[in-house]
Amino acid sequence: MTATREAARAFLLALRQAGRSNATIRRYRRVLDDLAEVGVGKALGGEDSSPATRRLRHAVLSRFFRWAVAEAILDANPLANRPPPRVQEQVPRSVPAGELSRLGAAVRAQPLRIRAIFTLVLECGLREAEATGLRVRDVDLSTRGQEGVRVRGKGGKERLVPLPPGYESRALLRRLAAGRDGAEFVPG
User: Fold this and answer.
1) Residue 26's CB: how many other CB atoms inside 10 A?
2) pTM over 0.70
3) What CA dihedral angle connects 98, 102, 105 and 106, to 10 degrees?
4) Non-local CB neighbours of 158 within 8 Å, separated by 6+ positions
5) Is the per-residue pLDDT at 187 higher than 50?
6) By C-alpha distance, which of 73, 77, 37 is closest to 61?
7) pLDDT per residue over 48-78, tens digit each?
8) How many CA atoms lie within 13 A of 92 on its CB side?
9) Where are the domains of the chain?
């Protein structure tokens, strides 16, 4: 095993011990595998990669190299003076009306727990991991004025997402919670 692979393995172990998500560790592993195979320049991504991909790869490698310097594995960070690629902000596109109607019909045809999750994502803007990590006990519809869902987001941060009275997700969650105390919304 090369020194780079050994260092990468130790770094990924440190990330896991720090409580980073499996998705983060998988993302880092892919970039670090490329580093071990093709070196720093190519691991940063070529011109055929999107600016966002190159920026993500730069962030992963920078973090790895900073860790390697702190652990006395490297003497210097090879990316210390190399700024990350710029990413142009994009205006979100709206979903065409026909597509939105088809999506609504498909969601309405799903079992209650799936409808609740999709509706919650659409109405409250939850991330996929936040929505799929929910449990019935994370839903509070009994504290007047504080009705909401407690979600764990990036970095393990917890926040309360309010559920206003007119939200369909609120009604669906109320039905789901009535029948499945402590259960997971999505089997995991």
Assistant:
1) 10
2) no
3) -160
4) 150, 151, 152
5) no
6) 77
7) 788 888 888 899 999 999 999 999 998 988 8
8) 2
9) 3-70, 97-179
